[in-house]
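Why do we bother with holo predictions? Because pocket geometry can differ from the apo form. Keep that in mind while you read this record for phosphoenolpyruvate.
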Amino acid sequence: MIIVMQPDATDVEVAGVVQRLRSLGAEVSVSRDQGRTMVEGSVESLLQAESPWDSFPGVDHVVPQVRGGRRVGREFKSVDTVVTVGSVAIGAGPLVVIAGPCAVESLDQLLAAARAVKEGGAGILRGDAFKPRTSPYTFQGLGKAGLEMLAEARRLTGLPFVAEVLDPREVDLVSSYADMVRIGTRNMSNYPLLREVGRQDKPVLLKRGRGSTVAEWVDAAEYVHNEGNSDIVLVERGIRGFDSSARNTLDITAVPVAKALTHLPVMVDPSHAAGRKDLVAPLARAAVAVGADGVMVDVHPSPETALVDGAQALVPEEFRALMAELQAVARAVGRV
Ligand code: PEP
Ligand code: MN
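The structure, written out:
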């Protein structure tokens, strides 16, 4: 069962509930969601007992947990979760655009991209310091120096940034710089890493595994939520299909499916889905039309020199043009 505390419940009141549950033999976990603390106890039979919880200081109400249900599921919470990154709200209605280079290559490259995406209207900067590369002989990212450049780009542009984390041992490092941490497609089922990002307090952008079903993706989000971090945004980025005309097959169906199954915001990455830039705009338009809460787009000041994913990167003018198109689609489907 889940005990939902009043919005203004104090730490002492939360501790009182936790202590009482433990004394009854329950395993207890505490999480926070939209300013409210939830205390979950594993002892179902407690529900049968005459509800002593109402009289507990700070308790708002008790939810009998649906067996087999998930914390990220609609059965747990029917209202949409809004995830705030810096001052940008994802899932609140207005479309959110995350944009920037695939990888941080130098301060000049990053600042040129950051300024361009800011000017184009992006709300969040992307750029990785740790890259998951298929070949061990290709550029792996600048590491900590890349995170420092991202922090500098944030200082100069005001844009919060998201960066990928690859290794449970590097979660604290990435999280100490980034405004949001990203789990990439290759690590969607890396359960120790999911648990680790669930234990830090920055929001988590969780990409769908390239060979994963929507249900497996939702379970991955559950791993994060179970550790206490409920600020999770799902990203559809294409799955491996049989057709090689694009790098991946964008599963547009997954967007409304994931939104119906979970209360989490769902975004789309048309760049990594397509792998080539001529498909980025049409896929991004489809994402907005199908109800995604936002899109994440690769933008590079000179894609021909990019160390990673140059073929799919838009140049600043193309990004500006795309933003205008997305605004038109958003208006057409009643969004901002
Ligand atoms: C990325 O966004 O740079 C990336 C590596 O994406 P994915 O994990 O979806 O391949
Ligand atoms: Mn990439």
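Residues 83-332 form a domain with the TIM Barrel fold (CATH 3.20.20.70).
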